[in-house]
């Protein structure tokens, strides 16, 4: 579905230059507090986990320390699981789902796994409720060497410093109505192309990796999450956000080619969750619970698979 309405910045058919990117940034404002809503919760976890600062972003709006929370007694002989949230800072349940997992469920898995959680990869995006960073760069299309996104670089360097190969990487996201009303129109304007929207799926779904689909892993998560919230049905074309459904509630992307977060880590099991917070059937707590269930059911699947061998 294309739209003739042009975004308020830039000229139709012309890519943005530095002037347009600056105009976009100047249109953004702080809408909530990363320090009050996120950092305080992370710091409160320090009795049960190792809480470390792995970087800091300094933008005009302030300083943004980046935190990773790790299970104590990290051991390189145990399988390591990475959970990331807030790669797109505006996707709220991804951030708070990662924190809730740590608060309520993660300790039960620390005997078997090293748990590594980066709850909010893009804190400026969290505060301004944005998909991009201040330079109109999407961190979740920027996971490659010498990335222009400091958010992506910092996370990749932190994971590399762990010195392990990841068993699993679960990246917590949302698909929202603003994807069509704001973020896709802004992307089209930035790139100087025609805006094409997709149908926003009503419900939870997963994005797997087309090169490493982990079909049984994905289906196990979907089965568990549908006990918490509803799963998005395919649209009339058998698709979700323009991609063919590979099984109920699952689509696959080329995560490495697209430089997505789950593509950089070479994990044996990887998936990206997508919660729909604008559905009339859910509330904030339901969205957070769905994220937690996605993580715990994924870990349960891996534990069972290892025992079954």
Automatic annotation (TrEMBL):
> What keywords were assigned to this record?
Hydrolase, Metal-binding, Zinc
Keyword Hydrolase (UniProt): yes
Cite the Peptidase M14 domain residue spans from the record: 30-299
Active-site residues? 274
Cofactor(s) essential for the protein: Zn(2+)
Tell me which PROSITE patterns the record gives.
Answer: PEPTIDASE_M14
State which residue ranges cross the membrane: none
Keyword Hydrolase among record annotations = yes
Signal peptide positions are: none
Q: Which family does it belong to?
A: Belongs to the peptidase M14 family.
Please identify the protein, giving its name as recorded.
Peptidase
Q: Give the classification, highest ranks.
A: Bacteria, Pseudomonadati, Pseudomonadota, Gammaproteobacteria, Alteromonadales
